[in-house]
Queue: 4 jobs
Job 1
Amino acid sequence: MSLKRRLPFLRWSVLRMATGARNITTTGQIGDGREAAAVDYVLANARAGDIDDVLARIDEFAYEKSLLINIGDEKGALLDTAVQRAQPALALELGTYCGYSALRIARAAPAARIYSIELAEANAANARRIWAHAGVADRVTCVVGTVGDGGRTLDVLAAQHGFGAGALDFLFIDHDKDAYLPDLQAILDRGWLRAGAIAVADNVKVPGAPRYREYMRAQQGARWDTIEHRTHVEYQSLVTDLVLESEFLG
């Protein structure tokens, strides 16, 4: 791995990202157009209908052009393994961004129906273009909204997309870090997770979701069985991170 790839602070796109960090929680984007540029790059360079090539081109863009805040290739491999372990028929993602992680879920679970909740319509539009180019638009759906909107988005999933008691096999959490625990609790309150379902949470160390980690530690062996994967923040090997993989015990 080149020094530029290993050390993120040598990349101008990382410095630009720091100045736009305040945009992420309100707009879902860095604010310099990198997300739309990533989609254009993928559509121009990736083979249509080839999930592997689409994922590779997104990774390439994030390393060589502008850093992206999706889960990335190193942590993405952990996500792949967890999805394969769950063998989901129904999967839910919180935080779509450019559609990268949903695409990894679709590749690891080719029979699954996948739903992704996204705050920003612009991100939803970008992700849908990515999914269409990869050939998975028929089984990956983005729902614009938030879990914390008083139940409206969860009601849509229940009324229109078949979410109900014990129906959910896999949950991936990668959105507003402060919302990890309350959003998980809202899903638990609906009774959607089946016993044996897997929940994966990214960025538990950086930027950090301490309340979520504390909850999983407190519930170890009771409601959840959690593995903490020590890894690195996306697209570099300097800053360490945690991915939590938790099996719901019921």
Note: The two ends are 42 Å apart (CA to CA).
Job 2
Amino acid sequence: MASEPLTLLDRPRLPSTPPPLDWLTLADAFEVACLVRCTPPPATEGRRPAVGTYRGGVAEFNREDAAQRMRQLLTRLDVPVEHQVATGGLRRRYELHRLHVPREHRSAYATLLEAGWRQGRRELLGGPVPGASTARRIWRTRLAAAAWRSALLAGGRHVRRHILGIRLADRELAAVLVRGAALLDVPAVLRPGAGCFVVSVAHGPHRDRILASSALGPAPVAKSA
């Protein structure tokens, strides 16, 4: 008697893309992704620098407040992280803050960052959605503020008398900042710099609005989309 053919109909199909993050998780994951993208890829022993958002689970900052902000966000996202501080320099001493996600948590961390960056970037660059809910409009401005907060903490400051500027090597993040500024009712300018991109806003009311919007406040509360 011939054996019955195997059927795959009952085998669960894995989704080709992960489900969208809820607004609270998205805001935190997107801000972490922006923080990481503000910094150059960390060098590893005998290997090329890791690229992209994940970067091997390592992020390096030259400012303590940027490192502390990333630790706070990862704690809210239930991702453990180790914080190491190294001191260098001769005449001018400096500190390097290195955040390192333990190996057993890197897969979840990588998935979270990639989803946060992809979904947050799409929300900001995708343009207005006809009939968008009030919650969605509010959270898009919060994502814009999160991107600017990350840039102000971890990006290269480019301050002149008439502008507040940020130097970035990541062109996609630069585009996100320009669009984010527009959502915050601030015109921003993107121009190439020496091996980087500079996103700037004018001093005065525009600078004040960016700083006020990106200031840390109480953790937001999720509402239905």
Note: The radius of gyration is 20 Å.
Job 3
Amino acid sequence: MAQAVEEWYKQMPIITRSYLTAAIVTTIGCSLDIISPYNLYLNPNLVIKHYQFWRLITNFFYFTNMDLDFLFHMFFLARYCKLLEENSFRGRTADFFYMLLFGATILTGIVLIGGMIPYVSVSFAKIIFLSNSLTFMMVYVRSKQNPFIHMSFLGLFTFTAAYLPWVLLGFSVLVGASAWVDLLGMIAGHAYYFLEDVYPRMTGRRPLKTPSFIRSLFADEPVVVARPAHVRFAPPQEEEAQQN
């Protein structure tokens, strides 16, 4: 059993493995009182006035208590982060990292701006960890890129992947969790999906092109597609043959 888990862990792509490890280590460390959540949560005043900039990052690593909700989010983090990195972003590690960076920036900006708006500032002030929202963003992006995959929720009913974020949002409301956390993830996910997939098809411009300095951090290996055996390819047209 332990060997199977080790093999599963080693086979994870680098970003998924790193984020999952940071989340588990941070959450367990807080549960054992090795790390204090008070040193991790997002606090605009401490960030701006006391230069505690690490809070902009660490609030994405803590997933509250070690309970069923924690296991639920670890499952979705491991599954959908891995699916995105291995499929949609296969061979594009830098682009995947940039997607997470974009999502984290959008989520942080929404919370900071929302905290200054009357009537809703109280709700945003309660959101001090954005780890669940970032995980939900990954679920949303994956569902938009693969909307026709058939899925089942707890074996009760089936639906296509396009409705997965809404099913999970409804489940969160039923168990008494804050809907704001999931909604923020959907907003960030839709912003990325629109700017990366929809807007370029409409205009031919790609506003979320990964900066070169981020690309320099990752050495992406080219994706090699093996030529199927026993498959004959049509010979070139006569004109093409003459030109060559």
Note: The beta strands are 150-153, 157-160.
Job 4
Amino acid sequence: MPADLKNRPVYVISVAAELVDMHPQTLRLYERKGLIKPGRSGGKTRLYSERDIEHLREIRRLTQELGVNLAGVEEVMRLQYELDDLQGEFEAEIERLEGAIRQTQALPSPGAETDPKDRPVYVISIAAELVDMHPQTLRLYERKELIKPGRSGGKTRLYSERDIEHLREIRRLTQELGVNLAGVEEIMRLRHELDGARARMEGNVRRLQQDITERMTKWRELPPASEQAGTDESDVADE
């Protein structure tokens, strides 16, 4: 289903509640907590979109199947909304750039650049000190795939600046918000997905912008049409 159709508010609260097997009062509670953001009709009636239904099903999975508390669910849904917004921005930007590209000739795209924040530089003892955790805790989080450090040629774990940010976020979720590890896994999975989507979007936009610049430069370097016509006529005369 196209993204714009998935965001179209169409279901009244009674239908939405039936679709996700919840009581309408539960949907109102989730709205008050900012977990779900239904649209409104002209008469202020709540209207839920297909994406809202997906989000409500995800909330039910997190709370009923994984036992995640509401603080953890709030983190998950905030990240999910960020992903949705990023996807919308990406599609709009790509459409704008492709419109500009259609006016020029195709050229090969340059390679993507690596973000310095992803460069693995810290050994496990330094990383553990930076985030105030025991190295064994970092190994546990790696086994649970909450964090994915790089490796040196000798297989030594090396953590990047982004890994350090993620470890600090895990500590905040577990110690300050009381989120269980199942909830943290969901949140960190979404964080990795969000970081990856953002990096891909920025890389694609950068390549398209470079594409346009190179094509416009080539276009400006072409001789004026009158000069080109004069050259063609002299070639004919010489023959």
Note: Residues 1-65 form a domain with the Multidrug-efflux Transporter Regulator; Chain: A; Domain 2 fold (CATH 1.10.1660.10).
